Every structure is written in C-alpha cells, then in structure tokens.
C-alpha cells in the first residue's frame, strides 16, 4: 500500500503523518508541499518528500502508484492574502492533488458547515470543494476500481500550530470559559483536538482496506460529532 499526503506541516497533517508511519500500513508515503515536515521514521516505511509550489501539483510525476490520498490543506483569507489566493489553496490545490493521485480511497479535511450555498465565503468554498471532489471522482472512476471519498468536517481545531492565527487563538481562549455551553444539540459544534481528526482519518483509512468496505457508499461525510465520539 502506498499513500500520498499534502498539508503535512499543518496542525492535522503533521499528526496524521506520524500516525500513518507508525501504523505500518504503508510501504511508501509520498509528501507534497513547499517545505518538508518533521517526523520520526520507523525504518520500514519509505517517506519521500516532493518540494513544489501548490500551483505545480498538476505537473508532478509521482514515484509510485497511490492507493490512499490524504489532503490536510487549509488556510485563512488573512494568511492567503485574498479570496482568490484562498481558493487557490483550499479548492484548486486540493482538486489538483486528488486528481494527480488517482487513488482508490481519498481522505480530505473540509470544515463544519461546508455548504456550496453558504453565506460565509469560507464555508461556501469548502462546500464547493466537496462537490467538485465528488464530481471529479465520479468522472474518473472505473466500474472495476471505484474511487471513494471521505470528507472530514471538524469544528474549530485545538492544538499547537507552528504559526499564529489570531482570530483562531482568541476563539480557543474564549472556549475555555464557555465549554460548558456545548452540550445537547450544541455538542456537534464543540471545538475538536487536531489529534482526534488525525485519528479519525487513519481509522477510516484502515477500514477502507477491508474488501467488504467496497460495498459502502462512494462519498462518506465524517462529522465533527462523530470524530468527537471516536
């Protein structure tokens, strides 16, 4: 089994990378990004880093055929600099990566509230990305080799980032004082540890290896509530 991961220097991605290595499920893990992530090798899994700009993904040649593709890309409009730059990361690069991998199982982090009709620009782009991914895989899959998609929709992520996000940090601090409010129907909106999201992605990837899993639906949405409970 071979895996590819993009976004390995991010909050979820760096945790997921180590989990993929430690799982011993993959002979090769191909990393794509602008800077190499840090990780602890296990002496069994071959990890290959391909340095490139996100705009260059479509032109890459991958060293091995990919079975599982993991996308943990995510930015903010402030970090990206503009709405168009945000789209280039959270939508275009994601689609280019999944298209390049041609994997049978694809695992992509989007967001709670992702909806192509949302008033919020952020959630609208995330929703558009989900729909575009589903359409892309529907167009490229073959009857003998169906392509499946898992969409992970976390709420506000908890964890230590390498870079500061002021609004996100403020929200995390506020959560410490109002965490008791997230009960009952509001529990689904509760902030979630990046560790839990990474664990859910690995769990789904392991389950996808079961031959009987091929009978499940083509697109699976893994909600924030489900990840909190796992």
UniProtKB/TrEMBL annotation:
InterPro entries: NAD(P)-bd_dom_sf (IPR036291). It comes from the Bacteria. PANTHER family: OXIDOREDUCTASE HTATIP2 (PTHR14097:SF7). This is Nucleoside-diphosphate sugar epimerase. It comes from Shewanella fidelis.
């Amino acid at each position: 089994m071979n895996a590819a991961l993009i976004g390995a220097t991010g909050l979820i991605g760096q945790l997921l990378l180590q989990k993929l290595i430690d799982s011993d499920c993959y002979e090769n893990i191909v990393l794509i990004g602008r800077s190499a992530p840090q990780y602890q090798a296990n002496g069994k899994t071959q990890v290959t880093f391909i340095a490139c700009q996100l705009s260059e993904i479509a032109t890459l040649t991958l060293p091995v055929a990919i079975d599982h593709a993991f996308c943990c890309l995510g930015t903010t409009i402030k970090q990206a600099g503009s709405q168009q730059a945000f789209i280039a990361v959270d939508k275009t690069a994601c689609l280019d990566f999944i298209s390049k991998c041609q994997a049978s199982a694809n695992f992509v982090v989007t967001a709670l509230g992702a909806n192509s009709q949302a008033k919020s620009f952020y959630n609208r782009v995330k929703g558009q990305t989900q729909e575009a991914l589903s359409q892309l895989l529907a167009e490229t899959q073959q009857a003998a080799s169906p392509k499946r998609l898992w969409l992970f929709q976390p709420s506000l992520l908890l964890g230590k980032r390498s870079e500061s996000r002021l609004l996100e940090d403020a929200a995390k601090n506020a959560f410490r004082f109002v965490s008791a409010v997230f009960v009952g129907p509001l529990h689904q909106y509760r902030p979630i540890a990046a560790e839990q999201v990474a664990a859910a992605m690995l769990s789904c990837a392991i389950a996808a290896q079961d031959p009987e899993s091929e009978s499940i639906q083509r697109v699976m949405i893994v909600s924030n509530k489900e990840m909190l409970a796992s």
